[in-house]
Automatic annotation (TrEMBL):
GO terms for molecular function: carbohydrate derivative binding. It comes from Thermopolyspora flexuosa. Residues 29-172, 194-334 form the SIS domain. The keyword Repeat applies. This is Glutamine--fructose-6-phosphate transaminase. One of its GO terms (biological process) is carbohydrate derivative metabolic process. Keywords: Repeat. CDD domains: SIS_GlmS_GlmD_1, SIS_GlmS_GlmD_2. The keyword Repeat applies. PROSITE patterns: SIS (PS51464). The lineage of its organism: Bacteria, Bacillati, Actinomycetota, Actinomycetes, Streptosporangiales. Pfam families: SIS (PF01380).
């Protein structure tokens, strides 16, 4: 029987097409609201926080705008005011109903920020209602607890945000993303080999850098949520500063990279180092050099680095769903989790 998670993974090309149809025409609205912002502040938790990491790298590397991830507890626990005049605060929540995120966005507005919501919860959701401008994704209802299509459509919304704020990229690359995801669904690469390798271990390191860092964090989270694997998501720069010691024959590394870009050579070198230490290295994306350096490799999207994360996560989602079933876990309803998580 096909899981809901697997069905929702397959729905991503159409969810992305619908989201881009809805949001690309709204670039002028975003520009009018946030075009003069001196900084962008992202407000999120969980999977949405991983999406925000992509937004931060995208804005800083391609739009030249400083960006940061907020600490919601400053607003909701410490209840401290900050000078956010000239800041564009962007809150992400799949449901639009996480009270902490809604409260933090309202706090940011009260502190002087202009505010944007990115949510699949629709324009009537509390988060959308709290924002000056709501960018509502068009993923449709997501029933499986592990987020898949709501995550990739958040990335698409962040790419639209970056275009509106001056990212020096080609919007046509973004419009190709749904077809690139469909191609990965048809041919994800060495899926069985990666599942086989992960089925016999208790933990793994998932690493990427730059634009791919968000994918490493999100894949590690999915493996923890749905497969109960002790997966650690790290930038490979941080990995090399000590945690590389945990990589051994019982702890493989999953290494994520776009097919081009400045972080690819370092990812290849890391794969070679992992293999030389007697550990398995599983690649996600990259080029033929990464494939040659790895034990097995999942395909990446035919997209440039700036938009590649929308596709890079998809083979990882497929691995997560297949591994959960291999381990006898229901990927739709992992233990201890609910679709909407409330924190203080």
């Amino acid at each position: 029987m096909t899981s809901m998670m697997r069905r929702e993974i397959a729905e991503q090309p159409e969810a992305l097409r619908a989201t881009l149809r809805a949001l690309l025409p709204r670039r002028d609205e975003v520009r009018a609201l946030g075009g003069s912002a001196r900084q962008v502040l992202f407000i999120a938790r969980g999977t949405s926080d991983n999406a925000a990491v992509y937004g931060r790298y995208l804005l800083e590397a391609y739009a030249g705008r400083p960006a940061a991830l907020a600490a919601p507890s400053v607003a909701t626990v410490y209840r401290r005011r900050m000078d956010l005049d000239g800041v564009l605060a962007v809150a992400l929540s799949q449901s639009g109903r996480t009270e902490e995120i809604v409260e933090t966005l309202a706090w940011a507005k009260d502190c002087g920020a202009r505010t944007v919501a990115i949510t699949n919860g629709g324009p009537e959701s509390p988060l959308a209602q709290a924002a000056d401008l709501a960018l509502c994704t068009e993923a449709g209802e997501e029933k499986a607890v592990p987020a898949t299509k709501t995550y990739t459509t958040q990335l698409a919304a962040l790419a639209v945000l970056a275009l509106a704020l001056g990212a020096e990229v080609d919007a046509a690359d973004l419009e190709r993303a749904p077809d690139a995801v469909a191609a990965l669904l048809d041919d994800p690469g060495d899926l069985d080999a990666v599942v086989d390798g992960l089925a016999g271990v208790a933990g793994a390191v998932v690493s990427g850098r730059g634009m791919a860092f968000s994918t490493a964090l999100e894949l590690a989270l999915k493996l923890k949520e749905a497969c109960y694997l002790h997966a650690m998501g790290l930038s490979y720069a941080d990995l090399l500063h000590g945690p590389i010691a945990v990589v051994d024959s019982g702890t493989p590394a999953i290494l994520v990279a776009a097919g081009s870009g400045p972080t690819l050579p370092g990812t290849v070198a890391l794969a070679e180092r992992v293999r030389s230490a007697g550990a398995a290295a599983y690649g996600v994306g990259g080029d033929e050099a990464l494939a040659a350096a790895c034990t097995a490799r999942l395909n990446g999207p035919d997209l440039p680095e700036w938009v590649a994360p929308i596709g890079l996560i998809v083979p990882g989602q497929l691995v997560t769903e297949a591994l959960a079933r291999r381990l006898g876990i229901d990927p739709d309803s992992p233990r201890g989790l609910r679709k909407v998580t409330q924190t203080d």
